[in-house]
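User: Hi! I'm a student and our assignment asks us to look at how structure tokens line up with a sequence. Could you show me two examples?

Assistant: Happy to help. In each example below, the sequence comes first and the structure tokens follow. Example one:
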Amino acid sequence: MSEEKRSIGYICPVCGEAVVAERTLFQLLAGDTSVPCPCGKSELAVRQLGDRCEITVPCLFCARDHRAACLNEGLKKQKLIALSCGKSGLAICHIGEEGQVFRAMEKLEGAVDKLRRDDTQESRGTFLDEVVMGEVLSELKDIAARGGIKCACGCDQYGVKVGYSSVDVICAACGAVLRLPAATPDDIDGVCARYNLTIPGKKGS
């Protein structure tokens, strides 16, 4: 019986290439591990802290490392975990099942390519993609109109914060955030497919 594995993907901020590696669950849960870029100038690190781990990811978008805690139970059970850059709103790391990670990385590479084209043409606008953002906001408005936005804490009051490539729906009571990506056409489909939106809520709220 083969050992269960997880794929880990990020984009190297130095050479700009996508890095995807495979680790067994045992490797991830038994001790510290790292995923270096073949260029040798960046690496993703996973440090074990008992029932959780700390993931340190080099960020292509703001040129600094991001750290996030993740429950080990999530590494074992979730099909895909995404860690985002707060400045850009874009995912910078994906961990999970191989197919899920590769699809997510293809989407991320598409967003990065668009950023590079915009920079080359000096045409970067208010949003990564104006059309995608407009469609996501329109769908969000439709969901709100039918009373389809609520928080797991029980509150149905919320605020909306529009970023460069994502929209945050924020619970007015507990402050929990539901982030809706708005970077590629796939993100429009993702919102259209949802009749309701549930903000995850904060523990202890």
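Example two works the same way, sequence first and then tokens:
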Amino acid sequence: MIDRRHMLSMTTPGLLGLSLLGLSLFAAPRSAGAQGTDKAVSFVKATGDRLVAVVNGPGSASSKRAAMSQIINNDVDVDGIAKFCLGRFWRQATPEQQKQYLTLFHEVLVTSITSKLGEYQGVKFIIGRSKPQDEAAVVSTTVERPNNAPTAVDWIIADPSSSPKIIDVVAEGTSLRLTQRQDYGSYLTRNNNDINALIAAMKNQVSQSG
């Protein structure tokens, strides 16, 4: 099984949804840095506002899942993260395996977030500094939940000046996409580098969460 972590949501289940959820509770301070970092902060806050509207608004579980999926697909570079997490095995996969894997990666991410929507009550988000990092921008935040210690979370935003996308979350100094890449690599090594075995495990993960 691959249930120890899953990309942005497995180390702390639903971390992506949990963290972005509280962004509208605080006014985002403007960065003193470059224009791209300012836009990255505004982007993260806007994404949080949309997530809050879905979580707190009316609608069935299926309609909220559809709305959440749309937000994730619009604001997160899911395909890029998925390819990164598969590492060298992406090039070894057949076109059909790549297609199945990308589809399942989307489903597992959305499922892991939407299954935890009821646990996000009381979340608070404090947005701190932002800074450029190579071609990306980093927005530092502190996530606070009732009965939980505060968590330092950095959001890595690609192409912040024009078409920003979330490409990674660094929680307490740990890159979640890098951790997931290591987990996928270990899983495949234990299963004779069989990508179909990983695909089957991801299908099972989705079906168990449904």
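Here is something you could point out in your write-up. The first strand starts at residue 124 and ends at 133.
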